[in-house]
Amino acid sequence: MRRSLLTKYICALLAVVVFASSCSSRRKTAKGAEVPTADVATDNSIKTFEMSNLDYFTFSGRAKAKVTMDKNSHDATTHIRIERDKAIWISVTALLNIEVARVLITPDSIKIQTKYPKKELITRPFSYVYNYVNPGLTFKALQDILVGNLSPELLRSSQVQVASSGDDVIIVGSKNNVTFQYGMNPQNRPYATKIEDKQLGQILDASYDQYGSFDGHVFPQRFILNVQGEGLQVKADLQYNRVQFNEKLDMPF
What we know:
Elements: H1 3-17, E1 39-40, H2 43-51, E2 58-69, E3 72-83, E4 87-93, E5 99-105, E6 109-114, E7 120-125, H3 139-147, H4 152-155, E8 160-165, E9 168-175, E10 178-184, E11 190-197, E12 202-214, E13 217-229, E14 232-245
Antiparallel strand pairs: 1-8, 2-3, 2-14, 3-4, 4-5, 5-6, 6-7, 8-9, 9-10, 10-11, 11-12, 12-13, 13-14
């Protein structure tokens, strides 16, 4: 498979899992890098938002997904399993319940096993994605995006600002040549995440909606993602219909 095709395939599968963007409920302030005129918060505000992150050992979810890549849309069922800080497992099923691919992501590697229409195993180091996204997107940052958490790795920067205006609370900052922005809801959970490398023209844009409580965990049932970079544009819209936390997981590959 040529490099460009492999790139698009990896990005599409990652998008099916958890890179996100513009949802209908997304608020205006989440679209740009502007911070509303407001009182700037202290470091204690950052700690409060971090404490509202999901605290879990494992996550398992099933979602109906619509993935748009190069102006072509595809419907699929996506199963996502996460063993925190260790592994992300994804299975993509198409029409007639036929599994077309599996993905296993660890802090060190990315493995993609295609099953239809052609069986093929692709193995790359995790660093391979840095050909197309900024190194600010680490394994843990990806994991946080998938479950709607703020990334402590990004927030640990001297260039972070928290501001509020009316119902909007916005966190903006920069680190390692990346600018990031979170829009927060009244429950201190994000409704939008944006990570951008303007120099390379790379954007990861995610939005979250329809929060519900699952075993005491406040989780977004709607997740929309846009990924743009190097002539590639991928959008994924996920609607979860099953969510479980802290159950024993299998990750067959």
